[in-house]
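Ticket #4471: structure output looks truncated?

Reporter: J.K.
Steps to reproduce: submitted the chain below (141 residues) through the standard prediction queue, then opened the result file.
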Amino acid sequence: MESIELKKIVAEMLKEGSSLDEVQKALDVEHGEKMTFFDLKMLVSELDVDWSDQEEDEPESETVEAEAVVEKKPLGTVVEISKLTRPGIALSGSVNFSSGATADWVLDQSGRLAFEKSEGKPTEKDLQEFQEQLKAKISGG
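Returned output as attached by the reporter:
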């Protein structure tokens, strides 16, 4: 798919209120375009979109905040492996946990796994799902 066409689809979905996670899944499922979360964020930063007409309402209570977190929650933990190789790092990528937490992850050449740039705190179930998905992706499953 051409870059211009891809940008139009992404901009349209974002204007309709889709989250980046929803856009990422739709690109894969509906358009056969696999894209890491990082690559999608970079593409969005290149868009010439006027976001001023989209107002974010301030939550009035903790209940509203909790509902907002639930709405942003992915259907399941989504693990992406970066195509870029960093010095001293065997593999790296990003993860969107089903609880709504996100992080970048790195696996060094000694096999140690670490999270970077995390937002939110993943649950124990999130971490189990992450490990299962990462193992499946690494083994080609």
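Triage note (M.O.): checked the attachment and the full token line is present. Residues 51-73 have pLDDT under 50 and may be disordered.
Status: closed, working as intended.
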